[in-house]
Amino acid sequence: GNRGGTAASIASGTAALAVPAAALAVGLLPLGEPTIASFNLVAGERPERFLADSNLDWGQDAWRVREWWVDNGEPPIVDLTFGPAPLGFYAIPTVDADAACALDAPPVVALSLSRHVLEPDLPVGDRVDRLTNAVAIHRFACPTEPDTKA
């Protein structure tokens, strides 16, 4: 008998692999901007709601925050990343969120997706830059003073 594959069997095997690969690619298109949890197609457009924690986000992108920080003039930065590798480990001096609004230079926030999902009321403003699928730089949102004039 013929133990080698015929052209027809090779073509059918290739097609059998191509169909699921194409379906996966098409399934990813509506997700838009990918995040660290984007492989979770069942969760839809916001997979991080279902899959965001230290098993995905453990501070692995702190070195990228350092590169951004140096390239952008070393602005004051509030560390709201998630995981055991604080930005200080990468020689980035951080400022406390409670003192950030008193600074002369406007601070930015290094924000991890996990913190943003798990703590939606963090003091972050508009996104300045997205470094990876797990970390972005945002403006720091200083609380507004209540209007005491009546």
Concise summary:
By secondary structure, this protein is of the alpha+beta class.
Notable characteristics:
single chain; 25% helix; 4-stranded mixed β-sheet; 150 residues
Task: Characterize the biggest β-sheet.
Answer: 4 strands, mixed
Report how far apart the termini are: 96 Å
Quaternary form? single chain
Could you estimate the helical fraction of the residues in percent? 25-40%
Description:
The protein is an alpha+beta fold and 150 residues long. Strands 1-2-4-3 form a 4-stranded mixed β-sheet. The chain has helices at residues 7-28, 62-71, 113-118; strands at 77-80, 108-112, 124-130, 135-140. It is built from 3 helices and 4 strands; from the N terminus they run H-H-E-E-H-E-E.
How do the helices and strands line up, and which of them pair or pack?
Elements: H1 7-28, H2 62-71, E1 77-80, E2 108-112, H3 113-118, E3 124-130, E4 135-140
